[in-house]
What we know:
Keywords: Membrane, Transmembrane, Transmembrane helix
Pfam families: DUF6114
Shape: elongated
Largest sheet: none
Order of helices and strands: HHHHHHH
Organism: Streptomyces caeruleatus
Protein name: Integral membrane protein
Number of domains: 1
Number of helices: 7
Strand content: under 5%
Radius of gyration: 19 Å
Oligomer: single chain
InterPro entries: DUF6114
Number of strands: 0
Amino acid sequence: MLMSSRxxxxxxxxRWRADRxxxxxxxxxxGGAEVLLTMKASVKVMLHAGMQGLAGYLLPTLMxxxxxxxxxxxxxxxxxxxxxxxxxxxxxxxxxxxxxFVGLLLGVVGSCLAFGWLPDQEPRVRRRLRRDxxxxxxxx
Length: 140
């Protein structure tokens, strides 16, 4: 009984994950979380203090929020991903060089993945099979 509920959850999660730009949203949210964590670094570790106050915490918080919005509202992914890449680039000035470049890069890559995700496109193997008349092209 435990095994069937476990496989049911896994298949339901896979279906949910396939219907949205999952990795793009996750990477954008992780980038924002990493930038937020580096804001708490000691003064000896910080490379660039940036604008103290609201902007240093607002931009990474927006990155986390946009990553979650991409996951739970994929219909608006274009707006969220464009806003996400702009906010991630803005953290370079406001938050320790974008979380020592790690959060900045995670945010930009996640936003690009979400922007490039095509929900109605079938997988390449099926397109290749249909184009070649049912025989997969194995030669390059």
